[in-house]
């Protein structure tokens, strides 16, 4: 839902509250109601919690996952499709 749609729904829901303003006899009550309405509108228009994770969070989690899975291929060197390590030749000096 886009910001405009959320604001539209909120105004449709709170429209009867505008008629309730006539019920307030004290200016402090009216000010409190207007302040509460403004806070609700601001929170709906700009939610304080981001909907998606930042890019650095995703890259960090992918990097951690890659570090955890880096050793999986070393667990079974005789698995199907794995090339066998080459033995040293005769001309290679030994340590």
Explained architecture:
The protein contains three helices and no strands. With 95 residues, the protein is mostly helical. It has one domain (1-76). The longest helix is centred in the middle third of the chain and has 19 residues, at 27-45. The termini are far apart. The relative contact order is 0.07. The mean pLDDT is 76.
- Give the fraction of residues assigned to helices: 40-55%
- Cα-to-Cα separation, first versus last residue: 68 Å
By DSSP (H or I, 4+ residues per run), the number of helices equals 3
- Number of discrete domains: 1
Query: What is the number of E strands?
Result: 0
Q: What's the overall geometry?
A: rod-shaped
Mean pLDDT rating: 76
Q: What percentage of amino acids are in beta strands?
A: under 5%
Class by SSE composition: mainly alpha
Stretches where pLDDT is under 50 for at least 5 consecutive residues are none
Order of helices and strands: HHH
Main sheet characteristics: none
Radius of gyration: 32 Å
Brief descriptors of the model:
95 residues; mainly alpha; 3 helices; DUF6412; transmembrane; transmembrane helix; membrane
Short description:
This protein has helices at 3-19, 27-45, 55-69. It has 95 residues and is mainly α. Helix content is 54%, strand content 0%.
Topology:
Layout: H1 3-19, H2 27-45, H3 55-69
Pfam families: DUF6412
Region (Disordered): 73-95
Transmembrane segments: 7-24, 30-49
